[in-house]
Design a protein that fits this description.
single chain, about 350 residues, mainly beta, Immunoglobulin-like, 5-stranded antiparallel beta sheet, 2 helices, about 10% helix, globular
Length: about 350
Amino acid sequence: MNHGESGVSEIISAVLAVILVIALAAIIGAIFLGWAVPLQKTAYIATQATPVNITNASAVQLFLSQGETVSLAPSTAYGLPVKFSLTNGSATYNVVPLPGTASQGWKPGTSLILFRNASGSWVTDSTAYVKNNTGFSNGTWTVNIIDANSEVLIAQHTVNLIGGGAPAPYPVYPGFTVEAWVKWNIPPNPGSDTTRKWATIVVDGTTDNNRRYHLQHNSDNTKFEFAIATATMTGSGTWVASTTTPGSGTWYHVTGVYNQTPGTMAIYVNGIQEDGKSVGSSGLRSSPAKYQVGGPAGIQWPGPTSMLRKFEGNIRGLYTYERAMGSPEVYSRYIAGLPAS
């Protein structure tokens, strides 16, 4: 080898050494200094999975034996969020938390229950909250625990389930449910401007005195309301109001439920019940079959200008159901997410 070739080799070796040093520095910096390179920390947990029978139908108990406290997705309040799924061949169930489940996070030494009913597949931290469990079909199931941030599999278990699995029909009580996703495009509260008040999402009837129900905002647009009129009521009926105050630019899932059998009504915002009351079981008042949806032009009801109903925003996923939904089903509708436009 001549001196020229030796010099080139030395240069190449030096360049490679510099590249190696830079790469090692990036990795060390990412680990210890939090540099923005694609490296993510996944929660450390050690879990056990056990099949259990609840109301003669199969479910899965997950025990967190050691590791970090984690949140149940979509919550991120306590550590990294995790989510769950069960698979058996082509069958897959994505399990979502019941409202209020593990509000302090899933801590070492505690268990969760994965179960299924007609409303969906659920995880809860107490068997007391397992309602109408239909179970998963018999067979060998894979239980997956996934880091919801990075979509990394944290733990996986195999369980053999027996007992239950037949799908249960949705319960039919006399009643109805109305739901919609809504978003204000302007600040909702009009202040002294009365032309935007009583912004209506859904209306059935032509006046307050003969309507069947409304799902709407209240008079100053600071709350959501669900109002109905039953056959035995006089005047404009009664209503329940949210504790949530809507803001502009945010989507809200709003649901009203009338259950005739016990004679109750309730309003839900983002899957959580915020108000309810007893209203009697005489059924809804008869009214014209006029179905209206509010918009910038308002709904032209008889009466003064102040009675115009307007909604300056967007509405998606507007549905009515001829049955009264329960809280788990309302929550599952919210978890399903905003429908495409």
